[in-house]
Amino acid sequence: MTDADTNSIGPNVDQVGIVVRDLHAMVDTLSKVLGIGPFRIMEWPLEGVDPQATYHGEPGNYRLLLAFATIGNTQLEIVQPLEGQNIYSDFLEEHGPGLHHIRLTVPDFEERAAGLEANGIKNIASGTGVHVGSKWAYFDTSQILEGVVVELRKRLDGAGGEGHWIVKE
Fold first, then answer.
1. What is the number of structural domains in the chain?
2. Residue span of the structural domain in which 142 resides
3. Is 117 helix (H, G, I), strand (E, B) or coil?
4. Alpha carbon of 156 to those of 43, 110, 163, 169: distances in Å?
5. In a domain? residue 23
6. Residue 160 pLDDT > 60
């Protein structure tokens, strides 16, 4: 393994995120037209769970409607901002609905995050996740990836895969 291999984020994209104005309409269209689903729909943050959210380095106070479906080995996340200042509302205002981010789950989260920041790539949002024992951070890679943001995620419990959902069925 070369130094370039250990310093790169890696090729394993495990989630693609799309930001929309109407999540239910998007889920319905994806299901009917492309046969994608089933979707798990939930609001974030979850009631009674401190999301430890940030927005451009400051404490974040926002709500989202989220939908998740699995396509092969990749999770599709649909995000509809509901209230508060957040990167998803910013994206809708600046670009309209569309592809927002790709996510990479990495075991060396802190090191990868520090490496991105050391290279001038700003952390624009972070928090704890939808899955038990996960945390995430979004980095503004939109200038170098032509509009796409990168999300890094770490499973705090050390497990792989999607793990257990915090949300009740």
1. 1
2. 12-155
3. helix
4. 22, 11, 11, 23
5. yes
6. no
